[in-house]
Amino acid sequence: MLLVFSCPALAQRYSISPVNADQVLSADSLRASVEYLCAPELGGRATGTDGGRAVADWLEGEFRVLGLRPLSGAWMHGFSTSEGLARNIMGLIPGSYTPSRYVVLMAHFDNLGTLNGRFYPGADANASGVAALLQLARMVTQMNTCHKIYGQGLILVALDAKEKNQGGAERLWQEISAGKLLDPVSGQAVSPSQISLVVNLDQLGGTQAPLTKGNPRFLMMLSDDATGRRSALESANKDIGLNLELGYDYYGSKDFTRLFYRRVSDQRIFLEHGIPAVMFTSGITLLNNKPTDTPDSLDYEVLRDRVRLIFYWLHKVL
């Protein structure tokens, strides 16, 4: 029996429907996050800049407001790069499994910045992924408000220094592998063996490079066949009537799929250490990594539907 409550929900004996989370998801909220991240005052969010630091501070504030729990006693985890101090922002939504299991959900917030006087807003790359990360956090915490506690903990990470050889993802892996990332509930280190899946959100708002010409309603999931839970994505897509066109490779190219899944995106370091990973993306367009990658170039209705589908998939995975 599935019940939809106008939360807080009343009794835990019912199966709490993920529909409860829909009320906190909106295209306007996604747009607002993207527009903030692309503001000229932030200069393009390059690692080590004042703009990058301002975004890290903002993200820490968002994690606090959402009630995420700080790992190792802090939301902000600093590390050094050739460009100066970088910052990963992390928070936990605890699960109920004992011993603990975790899904890591991440998106990088840095971008190219301002180069030779040219401002690179980075709306699709990757303000769209960060906006999606925040919305997914809101949706999961909304389910918690409705008394839905997922079995696995959800570690949310806004990564810095992706444009610096995936430095933020490398640093995250170093903290985990060294036993330095502490669960605030148990006080124990999060170990690699406890991570069941890593989910990377990178470029989710574009519609200029569809899988099928003329159809902007699509989403790509890059993963290994056995670990991506593709059937869960397909059933969620059907169950909620979104009918997004789904792709599981990079436009049919094995070489480009391998490149974006195993080499140039933030899940790489986890795959190299045998941890299953998924990348959600809408692909690279002719606007990416150019001054033309602006907030007005994104389709926020489609982005909202992509986020909704990813959430319903997470609801099954967690």
List the main descriptive attributes of the protein structure presented here.
single chain; 318 residues; alpha/beta; Aminopeptidase; two-stranded parallel sheet; globular
Look up the CATH topology: Aminopeptidase
Note the gap between the termini: 19 Å
Give the low-confidence spans.
Answer: 1-5, 8-12
* CATH top-level class: Alpha Beta
Structural class: alpha/beta
Counting DSSP E segments of at least 2 residues, the number of strands comes to 12
Q: Kindly report the spatial arrangement of strands forming the biggest sheet.
A: 3-4-8-5-9-12-10-11
Number of domains: 1
Fraction of residues in helix: 25-40%
Description of the molecule:
This protein has an 8-stranded mixed sheet, with helices on both faces. Mean pLDDT is 94; it is low at 1-5 and 8-12. α1 packs across α3 and α3 (123-145) crosses α8 (300-317). The protein has one domain (2-317): Zn peptidases (Aminopeptidase). The chain is globular and about 50 Å long. Helix content is 33%, strand content 19%. The chain is built from 8 helices and 12 strands. The chain is α/β, with parallel strands linked by helices and 318 residues long.
